[in-house]
Amino acid sequence: MIRELESVVLTSDLPEYGLERGDIGTVVLVHRGSKGYEVEFVALDGETMVVASVLASQVRPITHREIAHARVVPGIFSPQPQFGGA
Question: How many Cβ atoms sit within 10 Å of the Cβ of residue 7?
Fold first, then answer.
């Protein structure tokens, strides 16, 4: 079970935020018995890029022997959708 303040990995792209599968974020809120999460994605310089609402199927825990990869993220983000939206 994923808990608040745990690091997670995206399992699918979130193009509306410029995020890609494999990006790493931190869970800041657990929704409805772990059916979804609010996840903060932070640039390596400490800037919060976005806090996104995601379904449980869109993230997974970090596992043993994984390594992070740096990339530039586009600077334009859409407004945050509501959890469980369309």
Answer: 14
Whether the model pTM is above 0.85 = no
Q: Which residue is associated with the tokens 């970090």?
A: 62
CA angle 61, 43, 60 (to 5 degrees): 10
Spatial neighbors of 9 by CB under 8 A, at least 6 apart, are 22, 23, 24, 59, 60, 61, 62, 66
* Domain positions in the chain: 7-58
Of 12, 55, 5, nearest to 33 by C-alpha is 55
The model's pLDDT over 3-50, given as tens digits with 9 standing for 90+, comes to 999 999 999 999 999 999 999 999 999 998 899 999 999 999 999 999
Structure tokens at 2: 């994923």
